[in-house]
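Email to the structure team, subject: AraC family transcriptional regulator, L-rhamnose operon regulatory protein RhaS model.

Hi all, the expression group asked for a predicted structure before they design truncation constructs. Nothing fancy, just the tokens so they can compare against earlier work. One-line instruction: predict AraC family transcriptional regulator, L-rhamnose operon regulatory protein RhaS, return tokens.
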Amino acid sequence: MKAVNMDYLPNHQSKPYTYFDRGKIYYSDTCLPLNEAWKDEKIRLEAWARPPYPGSVALPDDVLAGLSTIGFWDATLGQDWGLDWHRNEGIEITFLETGGLSFAVDNKIHQLIADELTITRPWQVHKLGSPNIGVGRLYWIILDVNVRHPHQEWIWPHWLMLTKPDMEELTRMLRQNEQPVWKANLEIRKCFQRIGQLVMSGDVASNESWMIISINELLLHLLKFFREGEVTFDENLTKQTRTVSLFIDHLENTFAEPWTLEMMAEQCSLGVTRFVHYFKQIKNQPPMHYLTALRLNAASYHLKNHMEMPIHQIGYECGFTSGQYFSTVFKQKFGCSPQAYRNQFKEQ
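Reply from the structure team: attached below.
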């Protein structure tokens, strides 16, 4: 059985979260360490951004709708910060022009070098730095395509000018392939450099059209790059079963949350009936049965290994709000009460 770190168990009264994984709750990335480093003049930051992302220029509501942030940082000295595990509300493309950077995604660490490109989707948890970032210049763009789960249809910002067939092809390439790191070509490098120059101007009104052209050019070069490369595609990456499978992985670390069936389905952006259907396909049991089993397994672990913890506290922190219900379902599974179960290990 996988041990649960009690330090990571969420508080039942915690505020609504955006994402969750690895026993932790993730909110939409605010880049707070980056913002603080910029304010302390440890790093150069040039960005057009919408809150909560930091930026040298705030984007007006009626300009470049769907663009969350675009810009770069330039670190010439060693840093004492990194961007811990997070997800973004959009597809993020970054380009490392100079230097090196530790980039982790989906439990795999990549040591980025100059001229490498990263692509992460809204459901991919990732971090920058190990634990701190290195020297170098990193460009980025985050575009909100109105999805949070793999099975949802992407809706790109209206100002993108690719033809419908080109946009559909690029979308398919980004949805059905999740390779996170690529070696960029000269055209992509030049696109990010031009974007950087526009951002540095600080004049959104005069350069909005140029920025639109530059972003469209970047996406076209990305499409060409994929067409000319060896890209493999997997339609299963976009199916509803994958969304539910990802949720199940997360549930194994967030079982202490006060989940209801409706909340689970909503988290996956699915109706309850369809959610239950896919859940049973994957786990061969209803969601609430599986949730209860996760909670009971965690409780049994802590009853055995944390003798100092009161039984009612273990039940509560494993997701049981009623002590009586905890005792009832525990006895059904293990054949004895929580206290009797603990006593077996006291005698050893």
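Residues 1-27 have pLDDT under 50 and may be disordered. Residues 204-228 form the longest helix (25 residues). Ping us if the truncation boundaries need rechecking.
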